[in-house]
Please model this.
Amino acid sequence: MMDAYETLIIGGGPAGAMTAAVLARRGRRVLVIEKEKFPRYHIGESMLPYCYFPMQRVGFLDKMKNSRFVKKYSVQFVSPNGKISAPFYFTQHMDHEAAQTWQVPRAEFDALLLDHALESGAEVIEDTAVKDFLVEDGRVVGLAVRGADGAERELRAPMTVDASGRASLAISRFRWRKMDPVLNKAAVWTQYKGAMRDEGLDEGATTVAYIPDNGWFWYIPLPDDIVSVGVVAEREYLYRDGRDLETIFHREVKENPWIAEHLAPGVRHTDFLATGEYSYRSEFCAIDGLTLAGDAFAFLDPVFSSGLFLALRGGEMAGEAVDAALTAGDVSAARFSAYGEELCAMMETMRKLVYAFYDTEFRFKDFLMKYPELRGDLTDCLIGYLEKDFNPLFNAIAEFVDLPQPLAHGRPLVPCP
Ligand SMILES: Cc1cc2nc3c(=O)[nH]c(=O)nc-3n(C[C@H](O)[C@H](O)[C@H](O)COP(=O)(O)OP(=O)(O)OC[C@H]3O[C@@H](n4cnc5c(N)ncnc54)[C@H](O)[C@@H]3O)c2cc1C
Model:
């Protein structure tokens, strides 16, 4: 008997919806199983210019252009004394409409993208949680799910994609979580209404505002006069006086005059939220019948807004790899070797940049004074153009800071030859 679906996708966030859209547009029978009822809140609003290309490939751009999402043209950095650097405009580097990207309230964006997957031909069931993987002879053959009514059932398909985000079902079930050896941060955040916005093109800028001791604030303008604002720092630093999130947040606001001034006219609009477990990568990206995408595979400190890009581009790549595996009639883990290699390579590029960001000895400004010819490569990283050779850039940065060795894990689990 033929399975009803060729692929089951756990999670309807950006990675799952993108994988589903790619597969459905190729005529594949796909089912997305989402635990929540969309729209639902999610953190992570700031896009990179290169998010444009995966969205273009699944025909989603018109919906973005017709949306009310705030247009983002730039990133700006604020030092701990509140002094702002000249904004970095993407148009200075990119003569392409992708240079204008967006700040997206995730409840709306994720619902729009999941609807797009539906329109592309995928099936979606919400309010349904995946409880476990069905595993036979070391191969994932389906999922055990529980619907809103509490009823449990089994679904079977030749392929499953885990796009469950930071819940990371496969990582938990198979004990594959490997924390980054250095990037151990935590974040506390909220939203404000009526806080100050910069003018003109800078109204939609992402602002990264440093606090002393190696932490930083994000300040992201959203529609309806809302701003997403949060602080990231070492866990021990943030929680040094206790665990009350409001106290922590307001204590840190005082550490940067630009943030204090911008928040002053606003009122807090949502509760405080927090997260730890900042940077991890799964030991494997695939076993027979299963592959991982988005945060379900790996999470990198989001200081350069790489999460959405990696979810969208990774979802696109996962969709293509699954399609090729289904066409070949071979869904073994080895089919996902190129996928794992390419994804890990992109992540390593971003990861090196994140390490440099947190190194107290390193200043991007000083680096560019010595190596002005590498400005283009640096900018390519910052806009999400990660699929190129960055050796010249990182060989030069390595003169200033200790860069991490690439992590050895993240490839498919294939039997030893
Ligand atoms: C503090 C913080 C700030 C961030 N800021 C940014 C930013 O500015 N820019 C940026 O690009 N990225 C940012 N990120 C990262 C970004 O949020 C993620 O990388 C992105 O959401 C990943 O998308 P995803 O589809 O992999 O996972 P998600 O968006 O988390 O989607 C996963 C989906 O799976 C569903 N799910 C989970 N478990 C189950 C289950 N058992 N059964 C069924 N469904 C399930 C969930 O309900 C969810 O809808 C930030 C992250 C954090 C923590």
Notes: The radius of gyration is 21 Å. DSSP finds 13 helices and 22 strands in the chain. The longest helix spans residues 307-328.
